[in-house]
Amino acid sequence: MTNPSRVARPKSAAAFERATRSIPGGVNSPARAFGGVGGTPIIVKRADGPYLFDVDGYRYLDFIGSWGPMILGHRHPAVVEATIAAINNGSSYGAPCELETELAEMVVAAIPSVEMVRFVSSGTEATMSAIRLARGFTGRDLIVKFAGCYHGHVDSLLVSAGSSALTLGVPNSPGVPKGCTQDTLILQYNDVQELADFFAAKGGQIAGVILEPVVGNMGLIPPSAEFRKELRRLTHHHGSVLIYDEVMTGFRLSYGGAQELFGDTPDVTALGKIIGGGYPVGAYGGRADILKKVMPAGPVFQAGTLSGNPVAMAAGIATLRELKQNPPYQRLDQLTQQIATGITAAAKQYGHAHQLQRIGSMWTLFFANAPVTNYQTAVASDKQKFARFFWEMMDRGVYLPCSQFEAAFTCAAMTDEHLQETITAASDSLRAMAQ
Ligand code: PLP
Hints:
Blueprint: H1 10-22, E1 44-48, E2 51-54, E3 59-62, H2 77-87, H3 98-110, E4 116-120, H4 123-138, E5 142-146, H5 163-167, H6 178-181, E6 184-187, H7 192-202, E7 206-211, H8 225-238, E8 241-245, H9 257-262, E9 268-271, E10 282-286, H10 288-291, H11 310-325, H12 329-349, E11 355-359, E12 362-366, H13 375-379, H14 383-394, E13 398-399, E14 408-409, H15 416-434
Parallel strand pairs: 3-13, 5-6, 5-7, 7-8, 8-9
Antiparallel strand pairs: 1-2, 2-3, 4-10, 9-10, 11-12, 12-14
Helix pairs in contact: 2-11, 3-11, 7-8, 12-15, 14-15
The chain binds pyridoxal-5'-phosphate.
Pyridoxal-5'-phosphate is lined by residues 67, 122-124, 127, 150-152, 163, 212, 216-217, 245, 247-248, 272, 282.
C-alpha cells in the first residue's frame, strides 16, 4: 500500500522493512503496524517529556504515551532516578523484596475496593488471572464480557474484542479453540435490559462479569450510570464476581481510577500500564476473601518468573508517588477539555460529522453522526475519514492512536503551548480534509 503520508521518512521505511524480515508484520504488537490507517509506522528513536522522536529526526507530540502508561510523560526524572537505583541493586531476584510490598501498599491505599493485590507482568496476565480467580472462588464457569471491550490476548476473552482485534476486523483469532470461548458470553455495553434478562436466565451460573468501566478500546465510551448500577446490583444479588478491568483507567482517570471517579465498588480490579511506570507490570486485586484464594494462600494457581520485578516495582512506586504528591488530574482534565473544545469547533467549522468523546485525559474523535455508546455504534463510524485525519495530524507532528478504536491520552508533561499546537494542527487537518 502507498504510504498516505505526504512526508518522506526514508529511515523509518527502511527500518520497518528490515523488521518485517525477522518479526511477523514488523511489530511486536499489532496496533503498532498502522493496520487501521494504512501506511507504515514511524520507528521511534527516543522519547522525552510529551515528545517522541523518530529515526528520521522528526518530533511528534505523543498522544499515545505507550498506550497509556506514560501519564507523567517520558523520562520523568523521579522515575528515571528510581529505576536506575533499582537496577544498581540487581535486575531480578526470583525471591521476595520490599519494593513489592511498598507498591502493593500504595495500590491498596489508593483503591478502597482493593484489600490485597498480586503483581504479574502484563495487563493480559492480570485479566486472565482475575477470571480464573472468579471461577475458582465461585465454582462456576460462565464469564460475561461486553462486545468491543478488550482485556488483552487471553484466549477466553478474545471474542468480540476491541483494540487491534477490532481495528483489524479479527474478533475471533484462529488458534482459539471453541472450548476456550464457549463459557464466555457476550452482551452489549450500556444495554441494561439485555443485562437484566441475561441475569434472570443464567444468574446462578455466572462466575464473573468483566468490563472496562470506561471503554478505551472501542475509542472512548463512557458507561451510563444505570448500566454501572445494574451491574453492581445484579452481580451482588447472584453472587457473581464483578471485575473492573482498570488496566487503562487505573491511576489515569483519577488516582483511584474509574471506580473512584464514579464511587463504584467492584469485587476484583485488574491493573497494568501506569502502575509499572513504563515497565512490564500488571496486577489484580480486590476483596481479601477472594484474593486469599490465590496460591499459595489458597488453591487457585498463578505464578510468574518476573512477577514483582524490582526494577518495574521501583518505576511504579516512583510514578504513583509523583501522582499522589502532585496530582495532575485536574489540570489534565482542563487541558483535555480545551483540546476537545478546540477540535470540536474546527470539526463543526469544516462540516465534519463528529463526536468528540472524553473523560479526563482520555479522548476520541469519532467521525460519526450520533453518540457512540457500544460496539455497533463504534463500528458505524467513518474509519477512512479517521485514517485521513490521523495522517494529516502525523504530518503536522501530532501522534494520535493509529485507529478509530483507541483512546488518545493527554499527559502531564503537556503545557498550554502543546494544547495550542494540537488545536492548530487539528484545525488545519480538518480544513485540508474538507477541500
Ligand atoms: N485490559 C485493557 C483495558 C487494556 O487496554 C489492555 C491493553 O491495552 C489490556 C487489558 C492488556 O494489557 P497488556 O497489553 O499489558 O497485556
